Amino acid sequence: MKKTTIFAVLALFLAPVVIAILLNSQWLDWRPGSTRNYGELLQPAIRLPEFELQTASGETVTRETLAGQWQLLHYRAAGCDDACLEDLYWLRQIRLGQDRHQPKVALMFVTPGEIDDETLAAIHELAEDYRVFESDAGSALSPALPDAGLEAISYIVDPKGHIILRYPQDADLNGMRRDLSRLLTWTQTGPE
């Protein structure tokens, strides 16, 4: 074999190693220019506190109950009106759009306001497993949410209880669907 062939093969195998060293070195500052997420990434992520609260339908929920599932969390400052029901409908649609990953996604609604029985029935008609924290339970959980003073906001909570992405009231929820789809595809959930 010729020396040039040996050097060419050696260079071919060493080039990726040299490039990796340069990209991770102090001499070359290489960072991606932008991210692909639609929602606002919370840095650092905000962990939900330890809690034990009862949902409007009587289920006792703790932070450990939520472990292992992604949560689509919607917050409203004052109860739930027609606009709120529409947002909850779209969150349900986002979960349905996850195809085989649907069981990995749960739905939560938090409000310090009161919800009447008719509205609660309408929420559970959208999805029977909506966890609704209202009144005292909503007031206890609300301070843990960033931007809880806003009229309405949505979040994606990871399986370990960290709020990682937020979406303002007027956000395009199709972007939220894409973000959740990427998270479900690119991550593996396991024990904490």
Write the topology of this structure.
Elements: H1 3-23, E1 40-47, E2 52-54, E3 60-62, H2 63-66, E4 70-76, H3 82-96, E5 105-110, H4 117-126, E6 131-133, H5 135-141, E7 152-157, E8 162-168, H6 173-186
Parallel strand pairs: 4-5, 5-6
Antiparallel strand pairs: 1-8, 2-3, 4-7, 7-8
Q: DSSP helix count?
A: 6
Arithmetic mean of pLDDT: 88
Q: Ends: how far apart?
A: 54 Å
Number of strands: 8
Describe the protein:
With 192 residues, the chain is of the alpha/beta class. It has 2 domains: 1-31, no CATH class; 35-186, Glutaredoxin. It has helices at residues 3-23, 63-66, 82-96, 117-126, 135-141, 173-186; strands at 40-47, 52-54, 60-62, 70-76, 105-110, 131-133, 152-157, 162-168. It has a 6-stranded mixed β-sheet with strand order 1-8-7-4-5-6. Strands 2-3 form a two-stranded antiparallel ribbon. Helix 4 (117-126) links the parallel strand 5 and strand 6 (131-133). The radius of gyration is 22 Å and the shape is elongated. The N and C termini lie far apart (54 Å). The mean pLDDT is 88.
